[in-house]
Amino acid sequence: xxxxxxxxxxxxxxxxxxxxxxxxxxxxxxxxxxxxxxxxxxxxxxxxxxxxxxxxxxxxxxxxxxxxxxxxxxxxxxxxxxxxxxxxxxxxxxxxxxxxxxxxxxxxxxxxxxxxxxxxxxxxxxxxxxxxxxxxxxxxxxxxxxxxxxxxxxxxxxxxxxxxxxxxxxxxxxxxxxxxxxxxxxxxxxxxxxxxxxxxxxxxxxxxxxxxxxxxxxxxxxxxxxxxxxxxxxxxxxxxxxxxxxxxxxxxxxxxxxxxxxxxxxxxxxxxxxxxxxxxxxxxxxxxxxxxxxxxxxxxxxxxxxxxxxxxxxxxxxxxxxxxxxxxxxxxxxxxxxxxxxxxxxxxxxxxxxxxxxxxxxxxxxxxxxxxxxxxxxxxxxxxxxxxxxxxxxxxxxxxxxxxxxxxxxxxxxxxxxxxxxxxxxxxxxxxxxxxxxxxxxxxxxxxxxxxxxxxxxxxxxxxxxxxxxxxxxxxxxxxxxxxxxxxxxxxxxxxxxxxxxxxxxxxxxxxxxxxxxxxxxxxxxxxxxxxxxxxxxxxxxxxxxxxxxxxxxxxxxxxxxxxxxxxxxxxxxxxxxxxxxxxxxxxxxxxxxxxxxxxxxxxxxxxxxxxxxxxxxxxxxxxxxxxxxxxxxxxxxxxxxxxxxxxxx
Length: 650
Ligand code: AHR
Known about the structure:
The protein has about 650 residues and is α/β, with parallel strands linked by helices. About 15% of the residues lie in helices and about 35% in strands. The protein has a 10-stranded mixed sheet. Helix 5 packs across helix 6. The radius of gyration is 28 Å and the shape is globular. Alpha-L-arabinofuranose (AHR) binds next to loops.
């Protein structure tokens, strides 16, 4: 079959022009690609949709892991702002004693600004003077990400017995030079605990992260401190909000939902350390924090309302996971009476998310600053309950499902006892199944759902990732992920939602618990992995249905998805060549008439191991080219180790 395709690169260059001419000549001669491979034949009928694609297919899943929140998305810059005793890792607070100043610090369990934060840091200064100050220093979360000409908003609770100690000086200091990059003063009144605010405004210094923060006095005396906070400008200027750069990265993934609050983070290691949502709402002085399952303390500054506002800011819906009485350490709550209060917590949680202000928990949400209810369609009962070897999930699920159905019949319930090896034993609307695989194993899994039963529950692939790169996916992982996404799109009549996990990792030394993670960051910068690009491209060109299609003669590591946006009349082709040989294709696109221009977004890595890093963030990123196609016939070669997302109007 003759093909008529005119390739041209953008931005145009002489080399690209020559390549295009050669390509056209080869095309006219009926030879596809320079590899000598026999072309595979891919036929697609854009006017014949064979199965629907779920509009909510791609979403986000996160949890407190790899310092995703504290030291990550949650914009708080001060590490251990509550002076929590069991803060994991190096105690972040230390003394500053300039010149001959003398001072000591101790945790004072007898006084604090609230019933919950009923303890504080007591700074006792016995000798200090101007230039010889004494106080406390905090390293931030592996530094403080500062930008020029930026205002940072701080607050703290403080108490002094005697104002003779003088004002509290707050200074952001460069680690390398000792230069003060921004400073403020707080005059603390004698007597009761009080909240104070301060602002740090940077000058023209270049952006940096190797900085620390000091709180000092210049006279002898005693100061008690608690809830010492510093925030940069946040996304949408939310008070107590999120880092702008990370929110922008997530927004560019075109997500439709956020599964919250985890993962193992929902369950905790013990029942006691579950995500106890009622303790994560309201004033920060009422949030004690809790021990997370990933070996560090969580401040709960990013609590349930902040999760929901995060959804609102990204214009996505929450997929609300409720604690179901099983914790990762292996304990579970007995069904019946013992489980009742947990079921009630779940009912209350749904009311907090969705209830009108006239309801008990809707009113609480309004009191917390958000009168409008949030949208909700899915409630997930637990997380990875197939790990509960006692087999208690069937009964626990039943107790939760009965209560939730009775009160909220409109919401779909998701069960978590199914996985890649066996099906759920309960009868949910949706079953959450998780896949963590090597590139080879992920590619071998792509037909897993092709023959799966369509008469059981729908599937939520609530966690999935191809894992070999660390801290973030390499190009081999991106190929595995892209191959897997072609299969999820093809089976999206069954798979209603899917979310990669984990999403975020602080790549500073000691920040990561779990490789492989989609987006890397430190105190000041973010970078994205090849897998991130693959996902963002797939989700940005989803379509509403799979077009009838057939392929013959492709290599064993070639994967594809052919969806259409029927209203816009655009074919979205995803072509994944995970082989080290080029894959020539003869495309026959029934329904594509006349001259059309295809836009190709192409992602290529030289090897499976090729990747992006904080210091080389753009090694692999999409490149756009345009190709003219005549009469729906197209000889096109997908280069070795290449992922392409192609839009073709018809
Ligand atoms: O994503 C990391 C962990 O993997 C999740 O917390 C858990 O659900 C899964 O086992």
